[in-house]
Amino acid sequence: MTHAILSPAMPKPAHVPDALVYDFDLHADPGLLADPHARLLDIARNAPPVFWSPRNGGGWVIASHAANYAASRDTETFSSEFVPQAQMKAMLASLPAGAPHIPQPIPITLDPPEHTKYRQPLQKVFSPKTISNLRSSIAELAGELIDAVKPNGGCEFMSTVAEPLPVQVFLKMLGLPLERAGEYRAILKEHMSAMDNDREGAMRRLQRIAAAMRDTVLARKENPQDDILSMLWQLEIDGQPTTLADMENYGVLLFIAGLDTVMNGMGLAMRGLAGDPAMQAKLRAEPRLIPEASEEMLRRYTFTVPMRIVHKEVELAGARMLPGDWAKLLLPAADLDSSEFPVPEDYDLNRENNVHIAFGVGPHRCLGSHLARVELQVLYEEMLARLPEFRLDPAHPPVFHGGHVIGIERMNLIWDI
Ligand code: HEM
């Protein structure tokens, strides 16, 4: 288990009643680090549907399914613009002439209507058709990674499969050279371990990501190929042709939104399967059940926690929030809410109306959900087809991490050879 230091408890603001205070540190909660979804189930059962935690700077945590649904759709009250656009534009305009562009992960940091202008062109790029064309090459990459560890009778799954697979898929999809996978993995590692509040460091990392893509981005403008960078150059944003700055913004968005998420989803999915030999046997015998299994995995082990800042006074599930308050959308607790999912702790392939919100809901709903689903399903298929029954290595229990993408640091799997 990782030991992290709890963040200091902030004083409770006057508008927060005692009954709504509940201690939960998204990064260092001991229960979360010991077994994330056991703690999240405990929150879903025992915490108020919306509570205020003194940790992580002090802020609201939205736990119930209904409250997450309502807050995610009300972007006028629950804003994604942590730095207001006017302030951001003024800051960018104040940079000296010729200073390197600071890429922004747009549109995830914008509210409608500005958000819509930048999201709409991306929909085409992530259509189910574009993504299903990638399926066989994703399966090939997954197969190579699994075959490489198979003769060893075990592996540290995160570094050998869960991390390299989405990085290689990302490079391939964007048309970036696979030889640079090591460089991208290094940036991803740094990005994941960086502190939340290190804004300058975040800007430098975003610039490094953009710099690592720039040669290929420019080459695709001159010589379009069958890849996403070339497609992005063909887009129009609000009637204007795409610029290099737009390309860099989209590039860092996809890097941030698509790598860390898939990797941790893969870890959580395989941890679930490794502890459930009966489910492995069932899915090996009936691979057609894999799409349902991966959907139920997304619900049972939902793992992302988007942030919002309150822009207007509002009451949500009995909690009065004021402008400037921070709110975490605790989607993993929402998907374990028993008023929405009967017996939520069960991993149930026959669940009716599995309307989980692992990919969010409302205008920011994940644009990469088709791709993520294909990556997860392919991983199930290839792991089950290529390996005999696998299990957790009792000598090295998994190490978990909290944060906005809850997940796994290290996980040793073993199998018989
Ligand atoms: C299992 C893996 C994934 C999960 C659980 C996930 C989850 C989410 C969630 C919850 C949001 C909403 C964020 C918010 O409301 O602020 C989101 C947004 C987004 N995701 Fe994913 N994601 C995954 C994989 C991906 C992949 C593979 C990509 C693309 C390469 C991607 C691209 C995006 C983009 C572009 C947005 C922003 C959409 C917008 O702001 O309009 N995601 N994702």
TrEMBL record:
One Pfam family matching this protein: p450
GO molecular function, one term: iron ion binding
Domain of life: Bacteria
Keywords, sorted A to Z: Heme, Iron, Metal-binding, Monooxygenase, Oxidoreductase
Family: Belongs to the cytochrome P450 family.
Protein name: Cytochrome P450
Source organism per UniProt: Sphingobium boeckii
